[in-house]
Amino acid sequence: MTYRSEPLSRRAIRAYAKKIREQFLPSGTIWFPVEKFLECLPVLIGDEEFYFECIEDSELPPNIHAVYRLNDNCMQIRNSVYIGACEGNGRDRMTLAHEIGHLLLLKHSELNLYRNFDENTPCYCDPEWQAKCFAGELLIPADQVDGMSVDQVAKKCGVSKQAARYQLSTLVQNKRRPSKNA
Q1: Which of 81, 102, 120, 141 is the most exposed place for a label (fewest CB within 10 A)?
Q2: Which residues contact 161 (CB under 8 A, 6 or more apart)?
Q3: What is the DSSP string of 58-105?
Q4: Looking at the DSSP assignment, which residues form a beta bridge with residue 94?
Q5: Which of 44, 35, 147, 136 minimizes the C-alpha distance to 86?
Q6: Around 117, how many Cα atoms within 13 Å sit in the side-chain half-sphere?
Q7: Where are the domains of the chain?
């Protein structure tokens, strides 16, 4: 079964991620310390019941690197992913940011989930797309990377080249659209 959430545009997600960056980082800082943010999250969001746990890699299915369980208010992260994020591995940093996106967008932004029977769900109503978008916007700040190369973004933001390429492509797409669209 798939789920659908309330509509949320890239523009709205970008503004939300920017607000978080402004509140958590010194002005002009491009590298977002996602693992430190995760460690501070219960205090930052005023949710002492939220917790995360690093678990043995074998405790999650092979293609699952981390998961946020809404019902338990818990994030489970493979040990190797958490260590990788702490060491600057771009894919692992993005994984943490993605799961943080689920927590913040679903639980603390009061978006609702619905059972989804429509195979043609727009991306902006897909909670997975929303979390992926949030992760990209949090780790790759649009207002600081415009004009950079893929290699520069990957290095300065601590993300994979694939993530840098995708995020830069969203900037190009947004420049082509009228300003009212996300």
Answers
A1: 120
A2: 150, 151, 154
A3: GGS-TT-SEEEETTTTEEEEEHHHHHHHHTT-HHHHHHHHHHHHHIII
A4: none
A5: 35
A6: 0
A7: 2-176
